[in-house]
């Protein structure tokens, strides 16, 4: 079941470095792309940073709408993540082409991708110079949700749910799934 | 054995989202801190982005020296990563306090931390406004190395070396080790 995540803990959805799907919509058009280059930027209000190449259609929609969402995909979606990361949505609706659905989440400004394990809805913090020079986009998180089966009380717990483990892209469609807990506090 | 990594493939050392150690030195002083908020920013020349809080001593040294290094620690170092991430180096030399050694790598401008599995030596790309407003630092990678036992020919391969798996911080000294390969290309 999808549950809201307290905004001051939203950074924990990205803190361990998963590859994400970036989505946006504007004026009846929507698109989704994969991005390994995304990270938290602040705790409260939570902010994120993500790299969006100039060639991407998603970037056009982010610039037009001033909103984007980050959906955190899982092991079961590896082929889809690779596919949406290697094809452009200029010529076809990638949601339709890859059988992707969006969640019915009225509070979200951008499409949240079904089948993922966490979602961050973000408002762009326009930085024209850095966007132009480094393709670096910043956003403030305005809503966050996670699948309670693998994230609750601010913690990920993937035991017994290997297919829901987050994906961490290496290159060329090769990923790692996130692995075992390691306690560094003792 | 430590081997140089071709700079156009240096992004692969960070692409899967590991927590890193950020280190810098200036005028005989050095420091190291942990950072989960780091990511690649470009392929060639390779660039990185990392968040350095205003309170950190490492940030002072980065601003003074215009250089920093990212070392990628491993499972065997979880306690040290947590320790250097929760104590400040203003009062004590963290390298001495935690028994950390630096590599003898003449090409590096900043200290590279022994026992890690990969290293990126970076030159700061000063962005005073973004550094001040978002604590966001950018750097160009000028040298990269990795432990050939777990990274060679541009690929990570951790099989049989669990203690060398990269660490992915969740919160409060709790990490995940990176897990199993997942092929999304077929």
TrEMBL record, chains A, B:
Q: Which cofactor does it need?
A: FMN
Q: Which domain of life is it from?
A: Bacteria
Enzyme Commission number(s) of this protein: 1.5.1.-
Flavin reductase like domain mapped to chain residues: 12-158
Q: Which Gene3D superfamilies match?
A: Electron Transport, Fmn-binding Protein, Chain A (2.30.110.10)
InterPro entries assigned to the protein according to its UniProt record, in alphabetical order? Flavin_Rdtase-like_dom, Flavoredoxin, Split_barrel_FMN-bd
Q: Which UniProt keywords apply?
A: Flavoprotein, Oxidoreductase
Recorded GO molecular functions are: oxidoreductase activity
- The answer to whether the entry has keyword Oxidoreductase is yes
Family the entry assigns: Belongs to the flavoredoxin family.
* Name used for this protein in its record: Flavin reductase family protein
Species of provenance? Ideonella lacteola
Upper classification of the organism: Bacteria, Pseudomonadati, Pseudomonadota, Betaproteobacteria, Burkholderiales
């Amino acid at each position: 079941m999808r549950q809201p995540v307290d905004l001051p803990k939203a950074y924990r959805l990205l803190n361990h470095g998963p590859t994400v799907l970036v989505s946006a919509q504007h004026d009846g058009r929507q698109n989704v792309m994969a991005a390994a280059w995304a990270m938290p930027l602040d705790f409260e209000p939570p902010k994120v940073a993500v790299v969006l190449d100039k060639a991407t259609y998603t970037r056009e929609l982010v610039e037009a709408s001033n909103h984007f969402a980050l959906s955190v995909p899982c092991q079961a979606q590896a082929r889809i993540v690779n596919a949406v990361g290697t094809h452009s949505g200029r010529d076809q609706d990638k949601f339709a082409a890859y059988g992707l659905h969006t969640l019915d989440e009225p509070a979200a400004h951008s499409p949240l991708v079904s089948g993922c394990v966490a979602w961050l809805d973000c408002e762009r913090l326009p930085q024209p110079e850095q966007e132009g020079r480094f393709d670096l986009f910043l956003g403030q998180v305005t809503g966050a949700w996670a699948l309670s089966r693998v994230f609750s009380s601010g913690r990920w717990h993937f035991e017994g749910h290997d297919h829901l483990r987050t994906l961490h892209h290496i290159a060329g469609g090769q990923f790692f799934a996130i692995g075992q807990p390691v306690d560094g506090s003792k």
